[in-house]
Amino acid sequence: MRIGYLTDKGRRRPTNEDAVKVLPDLNFFMLADGVGGNKSGEIASQSALDALEKFIRHNPPEWLDGRDEIFRYFRAAINYVNQFIIKLSEIKPQYAGMATTLVFAYIHKGTMYIANLGDSRVYLIHNGFIQQITEDHTYVNDLVKMGAIAKAEAATHARKNVITRAIGANANNEPDCFSVPVTKGDRILICSDGLYDEVDENTILMRMVRFDDMMNCAEDLVHMANENNGHDNISVICINMVED
After folding, report:
1. 79-115 pLDDT tens trace
2. At 244, is the pLDDT very low, low, confident or very high (cuts 50, 70, 90)?
3. What is the DSSP letter of 175?
4. I need a labelling partner for 49 at 20 to 30 A (CA). Which of 5, 56, 116, 180 fits?
5. Which residue did the predictor score with more confidence, 37 or 196?
């Protein structure tokens, strides 16, 4: 597979509270979008990914067999990361209440396994169609599912960025887990809301299939988000499922 990734603070934010980490030797790809003032958001996101990498490298997943085992492994990893972030916030009062979204993907034997907390997303592009695999854990998405507001209203709702699940703080930290088949020719996008709030799905689809070099693709998507407003931090991981 070919991989490209990039994180950028955007045009409106003074700091970057997003973080990305790619472990190509283990086929693990992870992204976090921190929340909290006084730089605690950027501490939360980077610390969560560092803790997740530590867990993965001390407990490599190659021996796992089957969806249920992998999902149990994911939940154990998330519990480890969550406890690490909570302990860090207790040790350092200036980080009290910090939290972060967390989404990660593991590609193994023709299947992509995903765990998600928050509103960072994973998309799969297959046979010319784009599909959002993850579900946003947000207040407005809950309203949409209940039928209280229309999906079109969610994009401009005053509380559209209020997340309902996260790592750290007192948030619900039970992940959603997914598995989907992936094959040669597929594209995978992992991104923070700073991308999809600025670039619509059809445009993402067109840009993802345009590039074979995924670093060029990542740079192009971040550039487009910044050109469209860049109101938030922007992070992307782009994967092209093709053998070099």
Report:
1. 999 999 999 988 888 888 899 999 999 999 999 999 9
2. very low
3. P
4. 180
5. 196
The pLDDT assigned to 155 comes to 64
Spatial distance between the Cα atoms of 41 and 18, rounded to a whole number of angstroms: 8
Q: What burial letters (b/e) apply to 221-232, b meaning 16+ CB within 10 Å? A: bbebbbeeebeb
| Residue ranges of domains in the chain | 2-240
Q: Is the dihedral of CA 116, 5, 215, 184 positive or negative?
A: negative
Helices 67-91 and 40-58: angle between axes, nearest 10 degrees: 140
Check residue 49 and give its pLDDT: 98
205 φ/ψ angles, rounded to the nearest 5 degrees: -60, -50
Quickly list H helices, 3-66.
40-58
Q: C-alpha angle 165/45/118, rounded to 5°? A: 20
Q: Are 59 and 73 in contact (CB under 8 A)?
A: yes
82 phi/psi in degrees, rounded to 5: -60, -45
Enumerate helices (H) and strands (E) in the chain, giving the number of each.
7, 12
Who's near 121: CB < 8 A, 6+ residues apart?
103, 132, 133, 134, 136, 189, 190, 191, 193, 196
Cα–Cα dist 199/158, whole Å? 19
Q: In one letter, which amino acid is 239?
A: I
Does the 2-240 domain belong in CATH 3.60.40.10? Answer: yes
